[in-house]
Write a structure and sequence with these properties.
Helices cover 35% and strands 26% of the residues. By secondary structure, it is of the alpha/beta class. The protein has 2 domains: 262 residues, Zn peptidases (Aminopeptidase), CATH 3.40.630; 112 residues, Alpha-Beta Plaits (2-Layer Sandwich), CATH 3.30.70.360. It is elongated and about 80 Å long. The strands form 4 sheets. Strands 1-2-4-3-5-16-6-15 form an 8-stranded mixed beta sheet, with helices on both faces. Strands 10-12-8-13 form a 4-stranded antiparallel beta sheet, covered by helices on one side.
């Protein structure tokens, strides 16, 4: 089964929906206008069981198949990013400081396209739970939906999602069993020294010296504490200290990110980082405070569901356009919380180049919306056959 004909025929509508969403981006948990647009469309499609206000502005809609059966969840994220839209398109964001530069407008559109098809045909047994999630970009709306009992409330047994990928060819689908995206943590280090005149460093406790030594030592976690076969990134992304060429400052600030896949590796990083920060400060006769914040866990596909999703993808786009064993990436995604709660799989859908996600000139490729919608539709029909 290639791209569903009736979904392909929706191209003009899908494009109009997506561009409307692109022009009207919302942030965080406050995706109320986006949710209202989604709900209006779902009602137009004849879907009557619609639940609003989950994780503040999230929506879950249920489509009943023709026979009893289990419930499959399909998820799309709705939120944008706090940045300006520099795409230069006619449908660029109307709101300064907000932009759909990660393609969530496209994800929402793909799920709406699948919803219309599934509501029209209902060629499946069981139920489909359409999940429109707010606040993927840093707030963990997926975690909130899970914590509010979404899986139990709607009896969801499996869960699937898609993210666009500018780096991959247009219309290609990629996934893998096991780790697909990393856990993301952040850390902040505040070093307290003793400032003074730059010409008399012997009368000071120079926090810049301690900061430099600390940053160098942090890199030893990857190179000397972790098995080379384990994936880990420790990146220092900010160092701030000082105000003038002839003043040794009192304090230095370091910030960065940690990306990992294994919880044991993550725990070791936290332990070693605490030791390094404390001991390096003491070497230079000063003190330091570490704040380590655990963010989204790793996005880990379940083996059976990832293999199933790859099979469905091959039916939709052809074997030559599917990679069922793609290498994991170090970016993070809060769909991870849903995969911790239920078996499922996450996939990437290539959009064929252009600026990467989170770039101010990014724009979703409308040509791939029917591909994603067809994948969702076929997955339901294949997972829940009549």
């Amino acid at each position: 089964m290639p791209i569903v004909n009736s979904i392909a025929a929706m191209q003009e509508d899908l494009t109009a929906w997506r561009r409307h969403l692109h022009q009207n981006p919302e942030l965080g948990l406050d995706c109320f206008k986006t949710a209202a647009f989604v709900v209006d469309k779902l009602k137009e499609f004849g879907i009557t069981e619609i639940h609003e206000g989950i994780a503040r502005s999230g929506v879950v809609a249920i489509i009943e198949g023709r026979n009893p059966g289990k419930t499959i969840g399909l998820r799309a994220d709705m939120d944008a990013l706090p940045m300006d839209d520099m795409s230069g398109t006619d449908h660029a964001s109307k709101i300064a400081g907000r932009a759909h530069t990660c393609g969530h407008d496209g994800h929402t559109t793909m799920l709406l396209g699948a919803a219309k098809y599934l509501a029209d045909t209902r060629n499946f047994s069981g139920r489909v739970a359409l999940i429109f999630q707010p606040d993927e970009e840093g707030g963990g709306g997926g975690r909130i939906m899970v914590e509010e009992g979404m899986m139990e409330r709607f009896e969801i047994e499996e869960i699937y999602g898609i993210h666009n990928s500018p780096e991959d060819p247009e219309g290609h689908l990629l996934t893998a069993p096991g780790p697909l995206m990393a856990a993301v943590d952040s850390f902040q280090i505040n070093i307290k020294g003793k400032g003074g005149h730059g010409a008399m460093p012997y009368s000071t406790r120079d926090p810049i010296m301690a900061a430099v030594a600390t940053v160098q030592s942090l890199q030893s976690i990857v190179s000397r504490n972790i098995d080379a076969l384990d994936r880990l990134v420790v990146s220092v992304t900010q160092i701030h200290s000082g105000t003038s060429h002839n003043i040794i400052p009192d304090t230095a600030f370091i910030e960065g990110t940690v990306r990992s896949f294994d919880k044991g590796v993550q725990a070791l990083v936290m332990e070693r980082m605490a030791e390094i920060v404390d001991h390096q400060a003491k070497v230079f006769g000063m003190t330091a405070d570490l704040t380590y914040e655990q963010g989204y866990p790793a996005t880990i596909n379940h083996d059976a569901q990832a293999a199933f999703a790859a099979d469905v993808a091959r039916e939709v786009v052809g074997t030559d356009k599917v990679d069922g064993n793609v290498k994991p990436i170090m970016a993070a995604e809060d769909f991870s919380y849903m995969l911790e709660a239920r078996p499922g799989a996450y996939l990437f859908l290539g959009q064929g180049g252009g600026p990467v996600c989170h770039h101010p000139e990014f724009d979703f490729n409308d040509n791939i919306a029917p591909v994603g919608a067809s994948f969702f539709a076929r997955l339901v029909e294949k997972a829940l056959p009549l």
